[in-house]
Amino acid sequence: MGQQRVAIAGFGAIGTVVARHLDRGIEGMELAAVSARDIKRAEAAMGDFARPAPVLPLARLWEEADIVIECAPAAVLRELAEPALTHGRTLVTLSCGALLDNFDLVDLARAHGGRIIVPTGALLALDAVQAAAVGEISRVHMTTRKPPNGLEGAPYLLANGIDVTGLNAPKKVFAGTAREAARGFPANVNVAAALAMAGVGPDCTTIEIWADPAVSRNMHRIEVEADSARFAFEIENVPTLENPRTGKLTALSVVALLRKMASPLAIGT
């Protein structure tokens, strides 16, 4: 197949890690371009890259790439996705919460030979949920606990006057569906949207979100009841230093996905 060209939208905590792995070498993949709000900072960050890539506007990334990886704010998903999918590119998106409200992008991809891939990200065992969904699932529930600073500024908290500063005990700040959680916490719980799409959908997947001053990691517990299995799993993700809303595992998940896409051996559903 030759080398697949990869462009990265967003050069922050996730995009930089993925770009560095590509620069060091992922078989069958090469870094072709990046986009960033601060162009000079992005160019400076690539100063020690073996093969620095050009910094381009979001809407032009598809011109240089076969695969476009979205690590940008959810608000720019359409600006990036529409031209890429219209021209038959593969879009790897981490803003899967925004995808729930822009699901027509799936039809756009279908019409033009494009593809949308949501990586596992910060949530393990999505394979098990997808497998169970081939049968019947009666319940999917997720409980998320984050350090308070990992939730600050979320639209739901601001709209409802919920203050998470100075807490000395855990505080439940949200209970509802995955769709509601994705809208209210667009930078915090993309895992809820990924879980919903893997299983019973965003309106049947229930979520609790807690601001917990006693934890230093982003914690998720998922419980699934199905006709094929009953299972629960937990994960404690280490936040990145640059962005406490994001776990280190998210970037590594994208790297693992790129390796899987180019490998003659693929493990997992």
What does this structure look like?
The chain has 269 residues and is α/β, with parallel strands linked by helices. The protein folds into 2 domains: 4-122 and 249-262, Rossmann fold (3-Layer(aba) Sandwich), CATH 3.40.50; 126-245, Dihydrodipicolinate Reductase, domain 2. The chain contains 11 helices and 10 strands. Strands 2-1-3-4-5 form a 5-stranded parallel β-sheet, sandwiched between helices. Helix 1 runs parallel beside helix 11 (248-262). It starts with a strand and ends in a 7-residue tail after the last helix. The mean pLDDT is 93.
Low-confidence spans? none
Named CATH architecture of the largest domain? 3-Layer(aba) Sandwich
Q: What's the tally of helices?
A: 11
Shape: globular
Count every beta strand, where a strand is a DSSP E run of 2 or more residues.
Answer: 10
Roughly how many Å is the radius of gyration?
A: 18 Å
Given the helix and strand composition, which structural class is it? alpha/beta
Major sheet: size, sense and barrel closure? Answer: 5 strands, parallel
The main sheet orders its strands as: 2-1-3-4-5
Ends distance: 22 Å
Estimate what percentage of residues fall within beta strands: 15-25%
Mind telling me the CATH superfamily name of the largest domain? NAD(P)-binding Rossmann-like Domain
Determine and state the CATH class of the largest domain. Answer: Alpha Beta
**What is the CATH topology of the largest domain?**
Rossmann fold
SSE series: EHEHHEHEHHEHEHEHHEEEH
**Number of domain units:** 2
